[in-house]
Design a protein that fits this description.
The protein is mainly α. The protein is built from five helices and no strands.
Length: 137
């Protein structure tokens, strides 16, 4: 099949339009799947805060008083909700809150994989919103 110049331009335009999404997904694939740093070996505090915020939100949802100084400041409640979603997905097979917390501690990698996947989805969603805003459609 031979493409005329209009088809070639359309293909090039689509490639350039979606290239940032492809690049972000490839970078995520490398760092999150192919060569990840294990949850308990992270040098930063992001992973631990994520799990801590998930525990705090879980306690609040279940009606327990939970004190977590970092929960109400940066990165705050949205980070806690997203971390909680990853926590609940990773611990769907566990019974009550206590079992979910123990499971998440014993299987930090499952929680961390879901947290990274949700971060990818949020990043790609934000990129798509910006693309739509600046493209004007």
């Amino acid at each position: 099949m031979v493409l005329d110049s209009a088809h070639k331009e359309r293909c090039a335009s689509l490639l350039l339009e979606w290239l940032p999404f492809i690049v972000v997904a490839m970078i995520w694939l490398y760092f999150a799947v192919l060569d990840p740093v294990p949850f308990w070996q992270q040098t930063g505090d992001y992973s631990w805060y994520a799990l801590s915020h998930a525990f705090t939100f879980e306690a609040k949802v279940e009606g327990y008083r939970a004190a977590n100084f970092g929960y109400n400041i940066h990165p705050g409640v949205p980070f806690g909700i997203v971390s909680w979603i990853a926590f609940r997905i990773a611990t769907y097979a566990a019974g009550d809150s206590g079992e979910r917390v123990v499971f998440a501690i014993n299987h930090g990698e499952a929680f961390w994989a879901w947290a990274k996947f949700i971060a990818l989805v949020l990043n790609l969603s934000g990129m798509y919103v910006l693309k739509r805003m600046f493209k004007g459609d």
